[in-house]
TrEMBL record:
InterPro entries: PhyH (IPR047128), Phytyl_CoA_dOase-like (IPR008775). Its cofactor is Fe cation; L-ascorbate; ATP. It catalyses: 3-methylnonanoyl-CoA + 2-oxoglutarate + O2 = 2-hydroxy-3-methylnonanoyl-CoA + succinate + CO2; dodecanoyl-CoA + 2-oxoglutarate + O2 = 2-hydroxydodecanoyl-CoA + succinate + CO2; butanoyl-CoA + 2-oxoglutarate + O2 = 2-hydroxybutanoyl-CoA + succinate + CO2; octadecanoyl-CoA + 2-oxoglutarate + O2 = 2-hydroxyoctadecanoyl-CoA + succinate + CO2. This is Phytanoyl-CoA dioxygenase, peroxisomal.
Length: 334
């Protein structure tokens, strides 16, 4: 056991045991003992949805898996729409299609083969319907509060690895990409569109790292190259215990933007798919990232924005204001 600020919390090995139990029990986290947890909540808001155990679990670990939250019917419609977009049967304004560094160089075919992810689908009514699914939004409100903004959307399509390990996603904190705060009012919902385990590259998380600070991120020095904007935590310590999140189709994990996470290589022949949205409370504020560790990502984002919109006087805040959408409540600051 460790004692922090007068509160007793389980030590790291005890916590890993609790997490494993959380991941195998149904309902997830229902079996977690609350006996030794702190009583002050920082990362979750008072609400009538999360059980006390679920709140404690998120407070301690920075993530929470909810089983079977999105239906197969919805997932199939996202899959079909994704395929149409890859084949260019439809085009959507603002959509960003990102290609795998190893596959894109060797072959270009207009299908999902080289696509690692599509981003910014706020103008696509089919894919964007994910962000306003009531069963997702009701959990989101437990972290953001009642004024809910959809800030960043992605459908991740991890291709079979081309032999260069470029299908991996380096360990990172999503807050590195976001010029708004406070971090505790931001949450990601990430839904598995099929069973995702270690063979096809599941999410890997470092429990408890949401309690830390935003770290310096850079491109990792990987031999086989690394995909554009896949920054990783500099000097990532491989000895810290990690948890692999094995999830079934429709399972959804909600996680804090400071949680260190990434995903492994896809060793199968299939394209591993997940859909996600980062939400923030509309009462959050934009920050200026000049002079901070986020300057490097700001530079890349602004280069892409210039190519897309052709406007040289856009700011990072403008880019985020253009692509974000109100989901529920009132659009106040963001
Ligand atoms: O789905 C994955 O492989 C990880 C995605 C991720 O962490 C991200 O895009 O920030």
């Amino acid at each position: 056991m460790q004692v922090h600020d007068g509160n007793v919390t389980p030590g790291s090995s005890g916590r890993l045991t609790i997490i494993q139990r959380h991941l195998t029990a149904v309902p997830l986290s229902g079996q977690v003992s609350t006996a030794n947890y702190p009583t002050k909540f920082c990362y979750t808001l008072d609400n009538n949805l999360l059980t006390t155990e679920q709140r404690h679990f998120y407070e301690e670990n920075g993530f929470l898996v909810i089983k079977n939250l999105v239906s197969s019917v919805d997932i199939e419609s996202f899959r079909k729409q994704f395929e149409k977009l890859c084949k260019k049967e439809i085009t959507i304004p603002g959509l960003l299609i990102m290609r795998d560094v190893a596959i894109a160089k060797s072959e270009y075919v207009p299908d999902q083969k080289a696509v690692t992810k599509i981003q910014d689908f706020q103008e696509d009514p089919v894919l964007f319907s994910y962000c306003s699914l009531p069963q997702i939004v009701k959990y989101v409100e437990c972290f953001t509060g009642p004024n809910v903004m959809a800030m960043h959307t992605m459908l991740i399509n991890k291709p079979p690895d081309a032999g260069k390990k470029s299908s991996r996603h380096p360990m990172h904190q999503d807050l590195h990409y976001f010029p708004f705060r406070p971090a505790d009012r931001i949450v990601c919902a990430w839904t598995a569109m099929e069973r995702i385990d270690r063979t096809n590259g599941c999410l890997v998380v470092v429990p408890g790292t949401h309690k830390g600070v935003l770290k310096q991120h850079d491109y990792p020095e990987w031999e086989g190259g690394v995909n554009k904007m896949y920054h990783g935590v500099r000097d990532y310590d491989l000895s810290i215990p990690r948890v692999h999140l094995v999830m079934e189709k429709g399972d959804t994990v909600f996680f804090h933007p400071l949680l260190i996470h990434g995903s492994g290589m896809n060793r199968t022949a299939g394209f591993r798919k997940a859909i996600s949205c980062h939400y923030a409370g509309a009462d959050c504020n934009y920050i200026d990232v000049k002079g901070t560790s986020q300057e490097n990502i700001e530079k890349e984002v602004m280069e892409v924005a210039y190519m897309r919109y052709g406007l040289s006087d856009l700011t990072l805040k403008d880019v985020w204001m253009i692509k974000s959408r109100i989901i529920k409540g009132e659009r106040t600051n963001l």
